Amino acid sequence: MRYFIGITAGLLLAGCAVTTSPPSVSIQNQSFQNLAEEAWNFNRMQNPAVAARLGDKSAEGKLMDMSPAAMQARYEARKSFYQQLEAIPAESLSEENQINREMIMYALRNQLSDYEFQMYLTPLTNETGPHNRLAYVASGKRIRTEHDANVYLSELSEIPAAMAQYIAYMREGIATGITQPAVVLYGMPDSINAYIKQDPTESTFYAPIAAAKNTLDANVFNRVDTDAKNIILSQVNKAYSDFHAFMVNEYIPNSRADIAAINLPNGEAFYANRVRHYTTTDLTAQEIHDKGLAEVARIRSEMDAVIAELEFEGSFADFTHFLRTDHRFYPTSEEQLLKEAAYISKKADAVLPKFFKLLPRNTYGVAPVPAEIAPTYTTGRYAGSSADDQPGYYWVNTYGLDRRPLYALEALTLHEAVPGHHLQISLAKEMENVPDYRRSTYISAFGEGWGLYAEHLGVEAGFYQDPYSNFGRLSYEMWRAARLVVDTGMHTMGWTRDQAVDFMASNTALSMHNVNTEIDRYISWPGQALAYKLGEMLIKDLRIEAEEALGLDFDIREFHYQVLKNGSIPLATLEDKVRAYIVEAAANKQ
User: Fold this and answer.
1) For residue 140, what pLDDT is reported?
2) In the chain, which end has fewer C-beta atoms inside a 10 angstrom radius, N or C?
3) pTM for the whole thing?
4) What pLDDT does residue 13 have?
5) What SS3 class is residue 281?
6) Are 520 and 486 in contact (CB under 8 A)?
7) Alpha-carbon distance 199 to 232, whole Å?
8) Tens digits of residue pLDDT in 236-269
9) 157: which residues sit within 8 A by CB, 6+ positions away?
């Protein structure tokens, strides 16, 4: 049964006259394109760094204005754009513009939801917060001229005011009962402290200055160097110290004890909104929960088969305990873990032509998760490139080596690097003849669904030859299936954190550190974890349909091209486009 959201045509705005005959297709397409580009440009210009790059000199050296007045103004402008786009009937547009309309409206709708549900009052999860976001100012910053240096110094000087704005919103969250649960914030103080360095040359914020030493004139560098050190010591460190004190003395003690999203003010509507956003489906929490339970049962039977193959004597719990505690399964150094991840990555690179007829131009590297966030961060992640001349990175968490099992590394690598996130995201960024917002918008249900599908594709590509590695793959798939159960369970069905931990631990081989970190992630980021399995299930279902319809004419490279060619799109759109390809291909073979 089809259960993905259909993208319906919008209605005319109230008060607009209804014409007796519709405008020509070309006029309607041009009107849409102009409006969508205007909305996209408005969004881009809200980021001072982008605005400055596009010629707005007044934006140089500024951070984004997060004041209540600025946020409301952005909300009203985006709402107007959204309503105008909604008034353009989808069926009046070309096929490409119908997808473009879905994408720009998807992005705008999420920004409107952020404001309407006051998500800015909780600008942190268990993994990250404002302190990480502001530190991003330094990442990728290139100082080539004295002017570049002055702009960067100005940005550093804006950090105290920006941090004060975040603190003010979080205080408002305390007053209104909209906070993160205290139970997920145990690692936050240390994460903030990691940025406070008494030697400014060791600061994350000093790195762009250090890199400019051989670029700037010596006298200019000496002046910039002195100014940067003074700003870091007197302003940045103080802002971070103030935020640390606020978190320890005020925010965490006054954060809510309850973990369920539906118990927040307007919580039921908020969670439903997050589910719809992250999954692009109209499934209810109960339907998702039930799908998760069914998948858990199916995958568990495959895991039991692997245990039987290994002739292990003991229960499922005994086997997972063995995997979590036997030293043979864990790296002994960060270098070993990173090298193994790099080796698997190169093996994956080599099999790509067999499965894909179009590969991305951009490359990727393997790097550790930054130390400042590693203790509470997930086991690995893909960090896309921020510029055309920058690679993507497959981040591997090297914190707590006794919690990073090597038997799961093949699945992790195929998901985060290739043929998973790097391949999919890079191809999307390299699409031609589409607007920038098509290349930039990331839809979790598609992207994470593809990442999980990529893990399974490794079976066909010759990975998982070792039964333990295959069990690691199944454990990762079980991890994503269990998410459907625990996310909906905790946020809508009264599940406790301990209940969720027990469910995850008893059905996967994840280390207990990873189990606890992941559960805290789901608590602090409602709905996001639902995207993976639902997206993967659709891709697998569409592949089965294509194989059955095309028989010997089925071409795996062409199928993957059809899935990926439109970039990151809603699941309903993916379903429509791939099924249209199947019908056409089946007709052509007769």
Assistant:
1) 75
2) N
3) 0.90
4) 28
5) strand
6) no
7) 9
8) 999 999 999 999 999 999 999 999 999 999 999 9
9) 61, 231, 235
Backbone angles phi, psi at 382, to 5 degrees: -95, 130
CA R_g for the chain: 25
How far, in Å, CA of 232 to CA of 379, rounded? 31
Nearest to 419 by CA among 374, 464, 354: 354
CA dihedral 473, 474, 480, 481 (to 10 degrees): 170
Backbone φ and ψ for 555, nearest 5 degrees, come out as -120, 110
Residue 159: CA count within 13 A, CB half-sphere: 30
Task: Over range 357-367, report the average pLDDT.
Answer: 96
Can you tell me the distance from the alpha carbon of 238 to that of 127, in angstroms, rounded to the nearest whole number?
22
- Coil/strand/helix, residue 4: strand
Angle at 553 between CA 547 and CA 557, to 5 degrees: 75
Helix (H, G, I), strand (E, B) or coil at 446: helix
Report how far apart, in Å, the C-alpha atoms of 236 and of each of 119, 135, 170 are. Answer: 25, 10, 19
Q: How far is CA 128 from CA 192, 232, 283, in A?
A: 10, 21, 29
Question: What 8-state DSSP symbol labels residue 9?
Answer: P
Q: Among residues of the chain, what percentage have pLDDT more than 70? A: 96
pLDDT band at 227 (very low <50, low <70, confident <90, very high): very high
The 10s digit of each residue's pLDDT in 489-539 is 999 999 999 999 999 999 998 889 889 999 999 999 999 999 999 999 999
Which has the closest alpha carbon to 491: 517, 531, 522?
A: 522
Q: Which two tokens stand for residue 457?
A: 């594709």
